[in-house]
Amino acid sequence: MMAPLLFLVPIALGLGALGLFAFMWTLKNGQYEDLDGASQRILTDNDSPEHTR
Amino acid sequence: MTTAAAVLDHVPDRETANETAHAVSGFVQAEGDGCRLHLLVDGAHCAACISTIENRLQRDPAVTDARLNLSLRRLSVAWRGDKSHADRIAAAVEQLGYRVAPFDPEHLTRIDDRTGRELLRALAIAAFASSNVMMLSLAVWAGQAQDMPQGTQLLFQWLAALVTLPAVAIGGRPFFRSALQAIRAGRTNIDVPIALGILLTTTISVVELARHGRDVYFDSAAALLFVLLIGRYLDFRVRARSRGAVERLLMLKAHGAAVCHEDGRIEMLPADAVAPGMIVLVRAGERIPVDGRVTEGRAALDVSIVTGESIPQSVSPGDRVLAGSINGASALRIRAANTIDRSHLAEIVRLVEQAELKRGPALTLADRVARIWTPAVHGAAFLTLMGWWLFADASFATALLYAVSVLIIACPCAIGLAVPAVQVVATGALLRKNILVRSGDALERLARIDHVAFDKTGTLTEGRARITEWPRDKDAIVVAASLAAASTHPAAQAIHSAYPDGIPPKNTTEHAGLGISAITPEGEIRLGRASFCGIADAGCNHGSEIWLSRPGFTPERFGFEDPLRKESLHVIERLRAKGFIPSLLSGDREPVVRTLARRLGIEDAHGGLLPKDKLRLLEDWRENGRRVLMVGDGLNDAPALAAAYVSASFTHGAPASQSAADIVLPSDRLDTILTTWLTARRAVRVIYQNLGLAALYNVALIPVAMLGFVTPLGAAVAMAASSLTVTLNALRAGRISQEARP
């Protein structure tokens, strides 16, 4: 009973923490600063590397 | 900054023709070996706008980075080379048809940005904590029902503690900080019981865990934090969103001053950098940046926004001009009299600050609820403690546990969410109608008004002089219209627009402040003031009529006035029907105000008021316990707006009035005040319902907790149910009433 829990629980918490860190990274990276712009930018075709920042 | 629109509207004269209209280089920042410029772009709202602007700038070989933030309408451009390139960049964007205004990002409120990020970070941590702790807690609760070994249960609870404690330490900071501030200032606010609730729940859980007890509430602590942070973030969004919109409005208006140097160079400086004695060029359509005296040029100034006078003021060299007036006709050069901190505008700003200080922070509904709720709940908890300890012979530890469980079950989470959720829904719905509500509690205050005070010019009237009385003789109109084509005076232009085909006769002369004359074979024709046309000035009509004199005819009269908005009467009647007293406060002349008040049926009308007179009236009303809504758009209204119980300005209004007002209504739409009021009343009703629902859960569950029947599972279910109920109910506040339509 205990053995699977010993690795399943850390995995579950670890995955959650991974998501949390990913969110923190996107927040720090300024990805929530222009939500209106992001929803409009997908309509343009400028996907070449020089247009990405 | 001269806008593209202004250039098109007005024929460029000698001064504007040969110089760049976009002197923005004063706002450039050095960045590495290049420069960076921040521009506010008006009119950008879609994907095509982004790509048009960015692609146009990226075609410029010097530009290294160009990015438009569509949410904030801000364009950031970086380039290699020197500052002077900035003007070309701004000109390029304007050529695409967008208005631009340079701004210094240092001057913007940075606090918003930081608070928003802190709240989002706290929210993410609380979300992670509450979901994972719930996973662990569910296992424990399931395990208690079945046969999970004690050791495993304990392990799970320790893991929950491991996740919850740092989450509370980080995520709870906004509440702890606000609660501490309140306590230090000797008051309580809603954050005091919230902070206490979070801390007690966590502490009791740690203690219970250490003594292997049953009452471990880590899931409740984490969920409480999560729900409250949602409420707090919603509240922040309301404020940030409308503050951003108002800031944008202000930035588009608060442009720099074009300072003329002795060598003929024209440099754009921020208005506060203009020193006394500098010569400032004000082009047609621009706002005068500083107080001063005219040194060159003649023009008609629209002063309605500064003083409330609806008739344009003609100025010629030597005349004093006030900052904020709009130059309606041709370019002027003025010598700055004062720097911006000593101008008329600065005087108004000082009055506004004094008024705000006197008014003090408004007590929000949530804080008022906290005043009743906190003693009630804490009293119940104290009773529980005493009851169990003294009368039921329980041990002190057990009695304390039951007392704390009362505080946990009566969690203020529904209260923390009940108000902001409604506010975010209601202000969001109003924002889609272009009505900006600057703070959530403005709606609460608007719903409680009993008196409405209006400014006249620009609020009840259109703020633009129009010809309302035409002579009977058609021929006279044609002659006047063609003669008027020679003048840029607004009244003359209004006459001219009646027959735009009229060609001005030759040999016309404009007499500043008097009128226009032309020599024809029959004799001299004159168009202008009564005295100029040889009529005895009746006095009372001074400035609101124009006469035409022709040889061989009797003089003809053109009466002009600032007409009422078509919806004004409807709005006043509706407000009166709702039981509010309307008042009229105007800086315009007494007879004009009197006539207008009679037409609208307003009994309480005051004319000839200075900004400080309006302020005094508002303060008197407040002292008499009246809750006044002040609606005004002028600079002269700003102190009164700041002193009012709640206030509204317009997008077309003076920047100072917009920053003093709680609500900014769309330009030229007085009827939106009714929509806003109805929505506010509805929102407050939903808020009360929400508070009632939250109270219902508390009333039902507190006795259960006092009897000691609460389990961690029960607390979690109660919290989820009450939060969900108030959130769903809040959605009903978004429906905008159609009742306001005329």
Percent strand of chain B: 15-25%
Classify the secondary structure makeup of chain B into a structural class: alpha+beta
Q: Number of helical segments of chain B? A: 25
* Spatial extent as radius of gyration of chain B: 32 Å
How many helices of chain A?
Answer: 2
Regarding quaternary structure, what we see is heterodimer
Largest sheet composition of chain B: 7 strands, mixed
**Total number of beta strands of chain B:** 27
Strand elements of chain A, count: 0
Mean pLDDT of chain A: 79
Mean pLDDT over the full residue set of chain B? 80
Q: Which word captures the global form of chain B?
A: elongated
Shape of chain A: elongated
Q: What percentage of the residues of chain A does DSSP assign to strands (E)?
A: under 5%
Query: Low-confidence parts of chain B, pLDDT < 50 over ≥5 residues?
Result: 1-22
Largest sheet of chain A: none
Largest interface: A-B, 26 and 30 residues
Helix content of chain B: 40-55%
- Indicate the radius of gyration of chain A in whole angstroms: 18 Å
What structural keywords apply?
heterodimer; A: 53 residues; mainly alpha; 2 helices; elongated; B: 742 residues; alpha+beta; 7-stranded mixed sheet; 6-stranded antiparallel sheet; 25 helices; 27 strands; 50% helix; disordered N terminus
Describe the structure.
The complex is a heterodimer of chains A (53) and B (742). Helix content of chain A is 64%, strand content 0%. Chain A has helices spanning 2-28, 35-41. Chain A starts with a helix and ends in a 12-residue tail after the last helix. With 742 residues, chain B is of the alpha+beta class. In chain B, the strands form five sheets. Chain B has a seven-stranded mixed sheet with strand order 15-27-26-25-16-23-24, sandwiched between helices. In chain B, strands 7-6-8-14-9-12 form a six-stranded antiparallel sheet, with no helix packed on it. In chain B, strands 17-22-21-20-19-18 form a six-stranded antiparallel sheet. In chain B, helix 9 packs parallel to helix 14 (413-431). The longest helix of chain B has 36 residues, at 218-253.
